[in-house]
Amino acid sequence: MSASFPPSPATLLLPGALRQRILSPLADRVGRGLQSLRVPAFTLPAPFGRVVARLPQQPPALALCGALNLALGRILPREDLAALEGRRLRLRVSDAGLTLDFGLASGRFRPLAAHMAADLTLTASARDYLALALREEDADTLFFSRRLLMEGDTEIGLLVKNTLDAVDWSRLRG
User: Fold this and answer.
1) Which residues contact 69 (CB under 8 A, 6 or more apart)?
2) Lower CB count within 10 Å: N or C terminus of the chain?
3) Which residues make Cβ contacts (< 8 Å) with residue 84, sequence separation at least 6?
4) Per-residue pLDDT tens for 29-50?
5) CA-to-CA distance for 80 and 138, rounded, in angstroms?
6) Distance in angstroms (rounded) separating the CA atoms of residues 159 and 89
7) pTM score
8) 14 CB-near residues (< 8 Å, 6+ apart)
9) Phi-psi region of 35 (alpha: psi -120 to 50; beta: other; left: phi over 0)
10) Angle at 55 (CA atoms; ends 139, 91), nearest 5 degrees
11) 99, 92 in Cβ contact below 8 A?
């Protein structure tokens, strides 16, 4: 039997069986409530976007590439992304003033200089990217409602969309 130190207030106040009867259902209800939360409709304020647009875009591009590289092989299948090798991708967050240029080189995502044209540009609001990542919205719904814009090589766009649809987010927990 392991005891945590310092003991939580619930441990001190409730005997084991009572704690199990009260806290377990409460934890289940809180968990179900969190699962039903949805990203509210929002748009980042225009002044925020204007300020961010003037900042260097390299640090957020580095962060994005770092996250994508962590996901490679875990939830993003390397073999499916081989067609992206040497291609230039651009991710625009319209209301945040962010434009992130990156690509896949030697099997790793890397930030790229912004002065060259991209093979594929995806544009959406911060809220829509968040809803896409949380699987509240799918790429098709966002695309057909014109909230996700895709410009450039449609074959690459289809590959990116199908890869996002196939991601098994539960594998991140393991």
Assistant:
1) 108, 109
2) N
3) 103, 104, 156, 159, 160
4) 766 665 667 889 999 999 999 9
5) 19
6) 12
7) 0.75
8) 22, 23
9) alpha
10) 15
11) yes
The three-state secondary structure class of 120 is strand
SS3 content of the chain, % helix, strand, coil (to 5): 50, 15, 35
Write out the two tokens for 129: 């990217």
Q: Are 128 and 148 in contact (CB under 8 A)?
A: yes
Query: What's the pLDDT tens digit per position in 97-149?
Result: 999 999 999 999 999 998 899 999 999 999 999 998 888 888 899 999 999 99
The domain segmentation of the chain, as residue ranges, is 7-37, 46-172
Q: Which fold has domain 46-172?
A: Nonspecific Lipid-transfer Protein; Chain A (3.30.1050)
> How far is the C-alpha of 150 from the C-alpha of 52, rounded, in Å?
22
Q: Nearest CA to 109 among 156, 54, 67? A: 67
Specify the 3-state DSSP secondary structure of 170. helix
